[in-house]
Amino acid sequence: MRAGSAAKRLLVGRPLDSGRLGETLLPKRVALPIFCSDPLSSVAYATEEILLILALGGLAVLHLTWYAAVGIVILLLVVVASYRQTCYAYPGGGGAYVVSAENLGRTAALTAASALLIDYVMTVAVSVVSGVAAITSAVPSLDGHAVALSVFFVAVLAWLNLRGVRESGRWFAMPTYAFIAVIHLMFAVAAVRMATGSTIRAESADLPVHAVSTYSGIALVLLALRAFASGCTALTGVEAVSNGVPAFAKPKSRNAAMTLAIMGALSVTMFFGITVLAMVYEVHVAEDPTELGLAPGTPMSTALAQIGRATFGDWHILFYVLQAVTAGVLVLAANTAFNGFPMLASVLGRDRYAPRQLFHRGDRLVHSNGIVLLALAAIVLIVAFDAELTRLIQLYILGVFVSFTLSQAGMVKHWRRELAKPAGAGTRGGRAGGVDRRGIHRRLAINAFGAFLTAVVLVIVLVTKFTHGAWIVVIAMPVLFAGMKGVRRHYDAVSAEVAVGPHERPRALAENHVLVLVASVNAPSLRALSYAKTLRPTSLTAVTVAEDPADAEVLRATWVARGIDVPLRVLSSPYRSIVQPILRHVREAPERKGDAVISVVIPEYVVGHWWEQPLHNQSALRLKTRLLFMKNVVVIDVPYRLASARELAAERAEAERAEAARAAQDADEQS
Amino acid sequence: MRAGSAAKRLLVGRPLDSGRLGETLLPKRVALPIFCSDPLSSVAYATEEILLILALGGLAVLHLTWYAAVGIVILLLVVVASYRQTCYAYPGGGGAYVVSAENLGRTAALTAASALLIDYVMTVAVSVVSGVAAITSAVPSLDGHAVALSVFFVAVLAWLNLRGVRESGRWFAMPTYAFIAVIHLMFAVAAVRMATGSTIRAESADLPVHAVSTYSGIALVLLALRAFASGCTALTGVEAVSNGVPAFAKPKSRNAAMTLAIMGALSVTMFFGITVLAMVYEVHVAEDPTELGLAPGTPMSTALAQIGRATFGDWHILFYVLQAVTAGVLVLAANTAFNGFPMLASVLGRDRYAPRQLFHRGDRLVHSNGIVLLALAAIVLIVAFDAELTRLIQLYILGVFVSFTLSQAGMVKHWRRELAKPAGAGTRGGRAGGVDRRGIHRRLAINAFGAFLTAVVLVIVLVTKFTHGAWIVVIAMPVLFAGMKGVRRHYDAVSAEVAVGPHERPRALAENHVLVLVASVNAPSLRALSYAKTLRPTSLTAVTVAEDPADAEVLRATWVARGIDVPLRVLSSPYRSIVQPILRHVREAPERKGDAVISVVIPEYVVGHWWEQPLHNQSALRLKTRLLFMKNVVVIDVPYRLASARELAAERAEAERAEAARAAQDADEQS
């Protein structure tokens, strides 16, 4: 334990005071990389996902990329506009769960929560795996270690987040801005080179694209829709900003909405720019190298890596910079989920849809349990899907659009309720309080269109992706839903069960019969007996188990010789177990009736080293868990701290004093 | 827990009464397969191990097999004769640990114990892996699944042993006898066929044996000694009988000695017979198929499988019977260790060289902890060595001869002490009491020769095997030794620390200040408060942590409204933790001084389903482990059993009543 505690302190830093939470409010320039690294970074793979699907139809259908891209840009603009409304309406944070809960009821809220929980996990898994693909595109020799690298990055992210959101922000700003800068630099270089007459072609431009089958009519439309659905990964994570409004510096809603607008503009520019270059350079990609006429197992670069290599040149330093910042922003995009998931889990814990301990904050003002849970789930997915991006991405988009649709539908309800209020009454919170009824009509219209469009895309995603992996999500969501309902039902049942009438008050019980377990006459036993006497019990008996009859005889003799004034009861142990005879003795005790209780006092050896644990108290532990199940039985642990435990306690106390002194000093410096 | 308990009952059967231990005494016909399956089954691979080593020297040196075989037969006879003396001298069980402890002191005893613990694990690993090799020799398609099959068999053995020794005996008798029968049948068929003029040759007789290098002079002698050392695997497990004397039916010593003699005769016959056939059939084996001029990766049959196939013919049913019973007896040979290891661990636990809980017997009269530990260690070895017999066997023989040598040396000391006694005084136990001094001189001579011979072999094994893997054992033994010493030192230190003066007696403490932790006014809290009042404490306070200040205000209001006559103290929680504020409150309490104690009463929710556990008491658990480290603090668990827990308790009580009724009925039937 000693090592564990020191390691925790070293890893997650000193605890922050609740009163200092204000300090962690984020200005826009810090909020953008924290909340927008997910949507911004997804441009790194969105184009490629479109090309991968259309490649199934061969060279002839690749031009459909344009339609898919335009559709995605329009969708992105609509969704951003919709979520800006949410920022104003919910300055306290308008995640899909909150908006659905307030406007659409429990079922919608839990549906949204199921979708969000899955999406947070998928965000971590997909972003990290895609970031690792950027690395292996630049350093092909790492190709075989994708799983290990991905797991490593997830672990690093979890560690950074356990240290707290503000420090994360500082670190996380750099790669996001670098990514934006390098992508725009790439556009500039490409524009200049093409303007000066160069013809730039991708390394894969001359590879034949073998159609898997011929698509026409309905099949072709479905293929195009599937490509569009795949490209919709560009939209993932847009919700994070509206969810995180309370973390923004004031004016919160305005800053959040502004950040969303900036993010939207950057996303559209980068996504469309990359798509244009992919088409102009004739980038060809396929899930399997054989479809491009290559030998099986040939390592393939990502579409973005191909564009970068074609623009900057193969061994040019800028190509490596591009790959590095792409990997950086993608791995950090997972951070969006590390902010969102524990927050949602905490809200679910508060509402008793998840274990209560998810509601507790840890030392570092973050929901440590949620962070650890998220990291573990993502690691399981990465390992299970062998870090293959194309297989993971099939599970990704469905949940996103479920929460989009529910969130927008909830907003429609919200604005209609606002309209139903008598004119002049303020709307809820923030700047929205000042808008007139025409403004509300406009917001209603935006959200209604957003809800309609995202619902249509949801159906498209469901139809085109179902057999490709989305069915897993279709199963997982109801399972999570039922699980959360079950947890709530359990808590409600327990609350009802433990409720007491208005006139019940605590009153002393009539009898307290105390049993003290002893194995020999030593300090822990005497301490336990002394404590038992302090309780002034109705009856007091020392109990021992005669595992070895000779030992028991020695104990009895010592007992008599010392003149200990507590009767000693020796229990025989026919099955040579310590636990069973005691349980039987307690179970059959006539005293355990009516208004009486049996208190079992266990002298416990407290040790300071982890390796000393298995040498002590093993039977006591098993005994306690069984005794707690018995009616009218109470278990009393009288600890006897061995030297090693006293040392550990002293060290801990010293560390906590030093901690408090440092915290006081910090507070002085800052005031 | 419910499922766990039911599963345990289903898996290990009903508990046995200590008084019924007598029933499990074993007649010779049952003791032979239980205690001798290890030495008997090792003839299945001992010959092959000799051939494998000599193959390194090429065809020219294969004739040295005869010398190695004769040496091993002599050694086997001497060791069996030596251990027969132990059976008489130690009717209470004369394992190397006991004999060394009594005659040579602690250091020798712990050395023997280290060697034995390693050997038990090796017995399980080697026997099971070799048994699986017999299976894959007959069914080559299973070749790739050796690790999985081996792990499976270890798990099955552990399960059978958890059910108890007697039932194991019944099951385990069959394959051992079948193995003996089929091997002798094979000898008969071979004799008849050869007598009638057939020439039988092994499938590998025509394969060239490529010498790895040329051996002559000292190198050749060393190679021969190494082959001899490898063949000494035939001796492993001989000690089991002398160790298990108390499990034999009366007269214990005589029956055990007789069983040893039968085992010795069978071992010599089978080992020598198999070696003769291997030489006559010209069986050629090598670690690597390329040394036999085969393609890399060609599956190779074991030597015994080749002999069986040559004798019975390739597809003859008897060949498959041979492989099946060989696999059967080898997998069951591991059972010797499953008898011996927990017994040794229990003795070490009794002497405080191992955690005490290894001393406790489980429900089924067996040392469940030891069985589980042994199975896990063997599985780790099998997985680590990829189920490769030739690599595992290098670790095997060293420990065996360490314990042989110590055991025999201890016996020499024993007999010399007997001789030193005045004439006419009875020697310790059994038939030995009646032997005269000439008889003792004879026994002394036998054990002295045994000690000398096994010491010589120990040196040979150490020298020839050290670089081939035995170094691992040379490292592991001192580690185990130091570990056991450390455990004993810890227990001794604790005993000294908790010792009390002769006049100390339990006496009531002056003050008992009681804190009751509450989160809301409900049945568990009221129950805890009622119990606290029963203790008639010096002071009584209810304590709550204001994780959410609003909730705390509600609680305070309810408290006042109900007129609960216990003061409520609300602790602020700046770090939003439940545990820290309570710890700080207790740490800083002025009452925790001198002859006073603070009792912290925790209302605990007891639930009946395992999945309900994470929904409750998580903070209480962390709190308890920290409170126990504080001076003058006692923790009191007041359980509140929810409906599911009451159901579980009722089910358990019902099951235990039924159990008791069945046990009583069994006892009636048998009396």
Automatic annotation (TrEMBL), chains A, B:
Q: Where in the cell is it found?
A: Membrane
Give the domain of life.
Answer: Bacteria
Specify whether Signal is a keyword of the entry: no
Keyword set includes Transmembrane? yes
* Entry membrane topology: Multi-pass membrane protein
Q: Where are the transmembrane segments?
A: 50-80, 116-139, 145-162, 174-195, 215-238, 259-281, 317-344, 365-387, 393-412, 444-463, 469-487
One Pfam family, short name please? Answer: AA_permease_2
By its UniProt entry, which InterPro entries does this protein fall under?
A: AA/rel_permease1, APC_K+_Transporter
Ordered alphabetically, the record's keywords are: Membrane, Transmembrane, Transmembrane helix
The residues forming the signal peptide are: none
Its protein name is: APC family permease
- Organism field: Streptomyces zaomyceticus
